[in-house]
Please model this.
Amino acid sequence: MINCRFAVISDLHIALPETIWDLPGRFHLVEVSIPALEIALSHLESLNLDFLLLPGDLTQNGEPKNHSWLQQRLASLPFPVYVIPGNHDVPFLSATENAIGFADFPSYYSQFGYENCDSLYYTREILPGLQLIALSSNQFDEEGKQQGYLDETQLAWLEGVLSQTQEQFVMVMIHHNVVEHLPGQSKHSLGQRYMLDNATLLRQMLRDAGVSLLFTGHLHVQDLAEEDGLYEITTGSLVSYPHPYRVLELRTTSEGKQELDIQSHRIETVPGWENLQQLSREWIGDRSLPFMMKLLNDLNIPQPIAESLAGQLRYFWADVAAGDTIFSFPNFPTTARHFFEQFGAIHSNGTPNPIDNNATLILS
Model:
């Protein structure tokens, strides 16, 4: 019997004030990273949690100061925390003046899953009958360029772990998406970089082992996706609209199945950003035009028409990130209308399906 309450906060992008990069056009509101985290943790500390999951992008861009601050803050919490690296946490294979190296990450988080500092992935029985597998999806090619990928060594290790945990209920945490959360995500140039390159292989391995639950981040959207019985819960970024985090309860039903209740929360205000939700939505809207034009151009919409439509898509990405939005663009050309409306919270039968923020799942 498993009965526990836990939380997920993703893509924290922690940035101490003196480390903040003032890059024009950036989507991340890293100015609110620390006060937003403090508000979320204050809430979570009142809930008698069993543990907290942080599925990557813990820091703005791998700064040692930011990793050190977060490590110390997590150590003060009254519940266990389990972390994995995101692409922003180890941006380079070797350490630089401003960022830790790939192999340095575990030493910062030895209290948070990385008891073995020689590996960037691990597994723990975090409660009786409940096994966490924490994967590292950050790899570097021969030119030192980052990619989302599981190498042969990690896959062989995972195969061995899965063979030994068949009597456990297994949860997997990984930064990159393994199941698509956006229409055609694995095929579109703007969506591919958020997907694990060998996601197909990992999905098959997990299904073969009877794993049904994944937690990811990276995409900065609230979304719940399912493929052939494998549920992936991706949680939006704490520094991007709508500044969410999740509280979940896992329990064993009288029929012996696992039931997962998901409730989402938002950071509504922080000092200096008293109307955070509105200001953050506008922040994304102000920066969305190039992104929207790229999507329209990829649909071969003539440039003058694309320019006239782009303004109506000002809040499109913010509404995708919020989850559970239903889109309607009746005045768009047919191709564009079908493309953008399919991003909505619609079931395959055409009915509303608002499960991205709050839902109850029955897991096999």
User: Anything to note?
Assistant: The longest helix spans residues 33-45.
